[in-house]
Amino acid sequence: MSSCHDDYKKKLKEAGYKLTPQRIAIINVISENKGEHLSTEEIYDIVKQRNPEMGLATVYRTLQMLDELEVVSSLNLEDGCTRYELYCDDGAHNHHHLICTKCGAVIEVEGDLLDELEDKIEKDYNFEILDHKLKFYGICSKCKNLV
To answer: Which Gene3D superfamilies match (predicted)?
Structure first.
């Protein structure tokens, strides 16, 4: 697990939660599938292969709790599915996402491309920006080549 996520144990403990095998299994699945933006059901399917006794309700409750504690970050793509990735509190903004409206692919855009705009907003509106989430919708290269 990357260094920016090493404190998930501390976050759970500080909030009064135990680090159970189920929680570890869910965090591991998300960590091992970095960049995949897995839905609850996809996480459950992978966890179930390793831990057949785990139920879907446990995965839902655990993801909700991990999201509230900022161990994972939820991503709503307006497709009826919430997707998850590990949260990184390294002082940087979240990355941006490109979402293909044909196949549903989610592509991460690394780097913050909005620094100049943020500076202008902070100056013009006397507003301190702490973070932002940006999603672009369009057609990915694979789907464009199918046309």
So the answer is: 3.30.1490.190, Winged helix-like DNA-binding domain superfamily/Winged helix DNA-binding domain
